[in-house]
């Protein structure tokens, strides 16, 4: 859209918030870039320039507007709508791949050379992979600067910067101020004093209780293995470098404030966030024990952040959270129907985490506890994808409401979302466990598997989920002993787990949809339904028609659509057939399904028969 300057300028003149995150407005006379709905005086058309990303604006010498916070918006829906190289790269950059593996790792995951990748991203997005990753780091750093009490030297490495100097220079160039001044300004907005610092030069200030200032050359580069011993890894390991805060009302560590002030920033797709830092304990290394070991009272709750994730409205939070709640795996996920919240554990590159999500007005409250703050950007990117927060509901509605068959559903439930996935391998295993059985049976089987071989985290609060879903390697090793059911299906699950554990099958958000689908279909035990389900939920592909799904067909018939010609009728729903499938699932959800006998796995590996239906949704 950013190439259509007339349309972009009309959106700017109308201050239409629907376009926030879809393009960037830069003003030549001020050197500032803004969101389209910025409340400042509209600049003259001859003085503006449009960019597809904030990284492109930064690469052209612009800095972020402090009034409208242009990166504090929902991300662009293009990264899901588009299936090209640029979109796949943006998904992986948001996941923090460049910080962990460098541009070489990003290119390898995408199957292109570094040079070719750089050319494509520069042409499509106005910036190369390093500039895009730099924007990602800058806004992750801003979150930690403003909303945690981590020493600024630790913030630099936690956000993925290779040196203190690089951190200082980037913050100055992007935000037009120093890291210490950002913290002071944010503390003033929240009505509390900033921690008293001592100056250590170069704009970075460390606090009086720091043990030492991390030297500029001692951090790993983006391409190095950040899991090795390094100053960055010491962020999680050293209690002296922990984030420490208490809730504003002085209650227990789980009694948190209601969020940030109205003018605080939000955390968009790997961008800035509105949050208040809170702890009642000291950060420590990732605390994970085998699931078979009795839980121990935690000595640490890790770093705790209370964030607000912006969302494009309308937002069907009830439907989305009901979908997740119905499939909540015991131990891994917890749905609180009374409070309307959803908790789950997170397996992250540097440790583990727990997230508690609560829908609110215009945003989703995200209470996040991390054992290693380097995982912040990755965790938020995955949560945003799980909740489909970057979707464009207006675009979906404009297409689907033209079909009289589904128009009443669209009008009755605006802003429907396609639930995403936190982890690719987990999604595939759970989808295979759910083949030909009910949602309840699949949930029971997944929960028993997690209880038997999942790693246990140290929960900070009673009722909080404390089990990480098992890794493919663990399922491949123990699956033959634990899984129960049809022999061929159990063998297929173990085979898929082995393929993912060895790297033969790579299931992640940066995959090309056609290539991933072909590889899935070549895997024994995986048919079109499972492959399409993974594409829809993992890649966020908005145009997947679940035509072979029993409940989708029931829903189509209930709406007067010929089930035998569903694919033909669905052509009018392009490119939003995934969202249409969600509406059809709703329409067919109450229809009865023929019962069948299946067997589910128990935590001790015992066979347990259960009467279920072929209704998978």
From TrEMBL:
Residues 182-205, 217-262, 589-617 are annotated as: Disordered. SUPFAM superfamilies: Ada DNA repair protein, N-terminal domain (N-Ada 10), DNA-glycosylase, Homeodomain-like, TATA-box binding protein-like. One of its GO terms (cellular component) is protein-DNA complex. Gene3D superfamilies: DNA Methylphosphotriester Repair Domain (3.40.10.10), DNA-3-methyladenine glycosylase AlkA, N-terminal domain (3.30.310.20), Helix-hairpin-Helix base-excision DNA repair enzymes (C-terminal) (1.10.1670.10), Homeodomain-like (1.10.10.60), Hypothetical protein, domain 2 (1.10.340.30). It catalyses: Hydrolysis of alkylated DNA, releasing 3-methyladenine, 3-methylguanine, 7-methylguanine and 7-methyladenine. Keywords: Activator, DNA damage, DNA repair, DNA-binding, Metal-binding, Methyltransferase, Transcription, Transcription regulation, Transferase, Zinc. InterPro entries: Ada-like_dom_sf, Ada_DNA_repair_Zn-bd, AlkA_N, AlkA_N_sf, Alkylbase_DNA_Glycosylase/TA, DNA_glycosylase, HhH-GPD_domain, HhH_base_excis_C. One of its GO terms (biological process) is DNA alkylation repair. One of its GO terms (molecular function) is sequence-specific DNA binding. It is an enzyme of class 3 (hydrolase). Its cofactor is Zn(2+). Pfam families: Ada_Zn_binding (PF02805), AlkA_N (PF06029), HTH_18 (PF12833). Its EC number is 3.2.2.21. PANTHER family: DNA-3-METHYLADENINE GLYCOSYLASE, DNA-3-METHYLADENINE GLYCOSYLASE 2. This is DNA-3-methyladenine glycosylase II. It comes from Prauserella marina.
